[in-house]
């Protein structure tokens, strides 16, 4: 058994139409179509990876924050974490916090800007 | 919008014709991608056979916070004139807009030919001869800019380390998007505020991406909108923000070279003795500024102030800044 048309398939098909249109567009329209195409790539990655990333993020947040409900939205939990950092209850000296922030940011970067170079890489050809 | 272009064209003709009755037409008017608080239009002024390439900069404000820190159009024009007198590479101010021109606030300046894309400046084979010179030239420009005597300049706002942190923390909170990494950065910055220094001119947005570069090197420094009086180390820190390295992560200074090389060149060109820890404060704050601005742009799309797709797209670049801040404040944790 297989699935009906998926959201990421819609995004991919729309992106292909945009990419085909770019060569026949000029000036601002061409520029904006390219931006739109890249955003659709972001959307495709989000549709594939977002759920797992959010679940992992929330699990880590619940482990770090006291007295959290089991079903609070990620934005609410993030707000609670912000409060804890602003109040000085958690900070750079907490390895769990630092590891969490790195894992969350890198997971989101894989969705938003997977090609972003944030460190000098030692790999050949980088 | 075709209507807006027609209005701008008519206004420019009115404005320039009043100064030069020999002017016959405005040609090739084009809107360059608009920033949050100013518009830039390029055009050609025709006087018979003669064609003069010019640029119009005028104000548009959809960001309250942006308005608070902008120098203002007439201060910007006055600053460009002062910089030109001091022989800094800047576009020449042609004329300032008047109310009767019907174009709002702004000014017309000469167009400097060359490459402005930070990405292409670092990669275009045609600029291979320029690239080795850019770090030294940028350092020397900054050293001279910072040495300008304030009494020769229009009066700009004063912003030192503490005020700038307060402004950007407030801007972050005003956005209303919870960013634990930003909270961490705000705490670190609050714990590392450098003492105020004798105020100097600070460009405020000096970076790869705001330069005009030719095979001969830097031809002009653009975008003086955020200029203010404050700590010159702010310009060095901003120059090293990872976003402005356009992929050359291993060359922190604008994608051109190392921080150490930038500081050495700055001092060799007569700049003040560089304090690396003070520059580090400004580099961290610079990242926070850029990240808060990215979120603000995404919110401007949501709120309807600016419905261009570029604005929305930039809203997803905040994640890059979170990683850059973590790399500065807690490096080494990112290895998978």
Give the SSE map:
The complex is a heterodimer of chains A (126) and B (336).
Chain A: H1 7-21, H2 27-64, H3 74-86, H4 95-112
Helix pairs in contact in A: 1-2, 2-3, 2-4
Chain B: H1 2-19, E1 25-32, E2 38-47, E3 50-59, H2 64-69, H3 73-85, E4 93-96, E5 106-110, H4 118-123, H5 131-146, E6 158-159, H6 161-175, H7 180-191, E7 200-202, E8 211-214, E9 217-221, E10 228-230, H8 233-239, H9 259-268, H10 276-303, H11 309-314, H12 318-329
Helix pairs in contact in B: 5-9, 6-7, 6-10, 7-10, 7-12, 8-10, 10-12
Would you mind describing this structure in some detail?
With 126 residues, chain A is mainly α. Chain A is built from 4 helices and no strands. In chain A, helix 1 (7-21) packs antiparallel against helix 2, helix 2 (27-64) crosses helix 3 (74-86) and helix 2 runs antiparallel to helix 4 (95-112). Chain A is elongated. The mean pLDDT of chain A is 92. Chain B has 336 residues and is an alpha+beta fold. Chain B has helices at 2-19, 64-69, 73-85, 118-123, 131-146, 161-175, 180-191, 233-239, 259-268, 276-303, 309-314, 318-329, and strands at residues 25-32, 38-47, 50-59, 93-96, 106-110, 158-159, 200-202, 211-214, 217-221, 228-230. Chain B has a 5-stranded antiparallel β-sheet, with helices on both faces. A 3-stranded mixed β-sheet of chain B has the order 6-10-7. Chain B has a two-stranded antiparallel ribbon with strand order 8-9. In chain B, a hairpin with a 2-residue loop joins strand 8 (211-214) and strand 9 (217-221). In chain B, helix 5 packs across helix 9, helix 7 (180-191) packs antiparallel against helix 10 and helix 7 crosses helix 12. The longest helix of chain B has 28 residues, at 276-303. At the A-B interface, helix 2, helix 3 and helix 4 of A face helix 7, helix 11 and helix 12 of B.
């Amino acid at each position: 058994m297989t699935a009906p048309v998926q959201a990421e398939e819609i995004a991919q098909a729309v992106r292909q139409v945009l990419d085909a249109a770019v060569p026949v567009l000029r000036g601002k329209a061409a520029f904006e179509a390219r931006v739109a195409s890249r955003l659709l790539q972001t959307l495709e990655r989000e549709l594939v990876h977002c759920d797992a990333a959010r679940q992992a993020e929330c699990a880590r947040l619940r482990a770090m924050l006291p007295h959290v409900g089991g079903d609070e939205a990620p934005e609410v939990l993030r707000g609670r974490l912000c409060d804890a950092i602003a109040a000085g209850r958690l900070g750079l000296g907490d390895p769990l916090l630092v590891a969490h922030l790195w894992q969350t940011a890198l997971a989101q970067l894989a969705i938003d800007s997977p090609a972003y170079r944030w460190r000098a890489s030692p790999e050949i050809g980088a | 919008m075709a209507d807006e272009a027609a209005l701008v064209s008519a206004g420019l003709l009115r404005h320039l014709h009043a100064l030069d009755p020999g002017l016959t037409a405005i040609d090739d008017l084009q809107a360059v991608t608009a920033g949050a608080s100013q518009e830039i239009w390029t055009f050609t002024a025709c006087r018979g056979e003669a064609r003069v390439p010019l640029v119009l900069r005028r104000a548009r404000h959809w960001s309250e916070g942006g308005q608070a820190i902008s120098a203002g159009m007439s201060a910007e024009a006055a600053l460009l004139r002062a910089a030109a007198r001091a022989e800094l590479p800047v576009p020449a101010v042609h004329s300032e807009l008047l109310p009767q021109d019907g174009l709002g606030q702004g000014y017309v300046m000469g167009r400097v030919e060359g490459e402005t894309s930070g990405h292409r400046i670092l990669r275009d084979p045609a600029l291979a001869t320029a690239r080795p010179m850019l770090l030294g030239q940028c350092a020397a420009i900054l050293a001279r800019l910072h040495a300008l005597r304030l009494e020769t300049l229009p009066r700009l706002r004063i912003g030192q380390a503490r005020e700038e942190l307060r402004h950007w923390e407030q801007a972050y909170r005003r956005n209303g998007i919870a960013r634990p990494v930003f909270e961490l950065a705000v705490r670190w910055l609050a714990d590392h505020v450098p003492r105020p220094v004798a105020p100097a001119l600070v460009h405020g947005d000096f970076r790869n991406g705001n330069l005009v570069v030719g095979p001969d090197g830097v031809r002009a420094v653009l975008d003086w909108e955020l200029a203010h009086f404050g700590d010159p180390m702010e310009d060095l820190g901003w120059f090293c923000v990872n976003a402005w390295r356009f992929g050359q992560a291993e060359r922190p200074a604008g994608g051109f070279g190392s921080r150490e090389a930038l500081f050495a060149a700055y001092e060799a060109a007569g700049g003040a003795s560089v304090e690396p820890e003070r520059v580090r404060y400004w580099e961290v704050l610079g990242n926070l500024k850029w990240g808060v601005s990215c979120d603000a742009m995404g919110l401007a799309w949501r709120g309807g102030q600016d419905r261009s797709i570029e604005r929305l797209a930039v809203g997803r670049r905040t994640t890059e800044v979170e990683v850059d801040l973590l790399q500065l404040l807690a490096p080494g944790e990112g290895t998978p």
